[in-house]
Amino acid sequence: MTTIFEVLNLSKRFGGLVVTNDVSLTLNKGDRVALIGPNGAGKTTFVNLVTGHLKPGAGTVRMDGVDVTADTPTKRVRAGLVRTFQVTRLFSEMMPEEHVALALLQREGRSGQMLTNYHFMPEIMSETYDILGVLGLRDVAKLPVSEIAYGQQRLLEIALAMALRPKVLLLDEPAAGVPHADTVLIEKALAQLPPDLAVLMIEHDMDFVFRFAQRVIVLAAGAIIFDGSPEAVANDPHVREAYLGSYADARSVA
Amino acid sequence: MPAASLDIEGLSAGYGPTRILEDVSFSVPAGGRLAILGRNGMGKTTLFATIAGQTRRYDGRINLDEGDLSALSGPDRALRGLGYVPQSRAIFKSLTVEENLFVGLKSRPKSALEEAYAMFPRLAERRRNLGSQLSGGEQQMLTTARSILGQPTVLLLDEPLEGLAPVICDELMAAFLSLAETKAMTILLVEQRIKAALDFAESVLILERGRVAWSGTPAELEAQPETVDRLLGVGH
Lengths: 254, 236
Description:
The complex is a heterodimer. By secondary structure, chain A is an alpha/beta fold. Chain A contains 10 helices and 10 strands. In chain A, a hairpin with a 2-residue loop joins strand 4 and strand 5. Chain A starts with a strand and ends with a helix. The radius of gyration of chain B is 17 Å and the shape is globular. In chain B, helix 4 (113-119) crosses helix 6. The longest helix of chain B has 16 residues, at 166-181. In chain B, the strands form 2 sheets. In chain B, strands 6-7-8-3-9-10 form a 6-stranded mixed sheet, sandwiched between helices. A 4-stranded antiparallel sheet of chain B has the order 2-1-4-5, covered by helices on one side. Chain B has 10 helices and 10 strands. The A-B interface holds A 14, 17, 36-41, 43-45, 86-87, 149-151, 173, 176-182, 184-185, 204, 206, 241-247 and B 39-41, 87, 122, 126, 129, 133-138, 140-141, 159, 162-171, 192-194, 232-234.
């Protein structure tokens, strides 16, 4: 197992409130990890801290062995640390094809060519459709985003993240707002991601979490209270009480 | 005020020239629990927004305990007892949690805030924090608590479980059930978690392209997997 991402003793306070409390974790290449925990436990704050959207009070973030704690969010993306957001941030009038092509041009440092016709750039077109294919979006590639299903919009967000060639992908509630019946689309798409990509997913849909994750980390009041297998987390009394509730019972029965 | 009945007759609505709802009719008795299901884009949120007076109504009536609300403004409908928890977590981000809750009190005394804190202890811990400092799930709790504080007679809940921890979902659904069973509120629920919605509701309505495609009880729906697949399944 090759370590790709390390967080060491990360802490953050908002005034008197400790939102991240001495958090340390490691992701290896190919990991599929779920980060769960009560509302306000600090899950999104953790993602904001490690991606550079918030400055930590203490701690270190390493990508591929390199300390990126002082780097800007953009520099971290270039190092391979990429995230998605809880709420979609797409251009409703633009097509999925345009979104991905523009992300690729940005990645290649060719954002000045955004207004030119990328259809004449074979390498951009080819990679655009490769990525859309992985996410199952080829059929809707030329529809305005406003006309595609919300689940597909969430997939497009992941496509944009993939366009940045991540080594570590942080997904913040990718199934939020998606009909339960459609989360299978997201699951199928995630199954197509490159096997050496490390994925950390925040999600409250426990059926999804337990199908996706090989490992589950539980955050409560800013601190990690559990890090282990999905089977073990469902049987942990503290996690059951603080977070899972009747879901744990249903799972035990199942 | 005790729960009120809600009677929707031939409701059609939309945005500008785009018609979203067509001839939607249904009734919910006082203290009733109705789940409204359907895939995304089928008109569920538009239905609630139209009942709440936030979307243009082309035709139809919205009767709350025999009184037609359809000519009233949104705020006037709220004063008549209609509560609406929108999907968008519409909180005031520059106000504290407690200040947000004050907005929902209407003319009730400040001591009523404790009802919100009993329902969501997490909000009590965060009462002095600004809305902008809340997590997504905490914002969802605040939106719901603020509406319930106003003691609506009919409450429209648009995906109230989104972003909430499983244990909070359990507690919240139990609280909604209690509010309806004690005849404090009539509750209409739009929810993507079909099982949670069916466990809660007495009756179910499925929207398909802005029309009522199916209605019945949760037991009837569960006995028709082909209906579930056709109207709620993937890829249709």
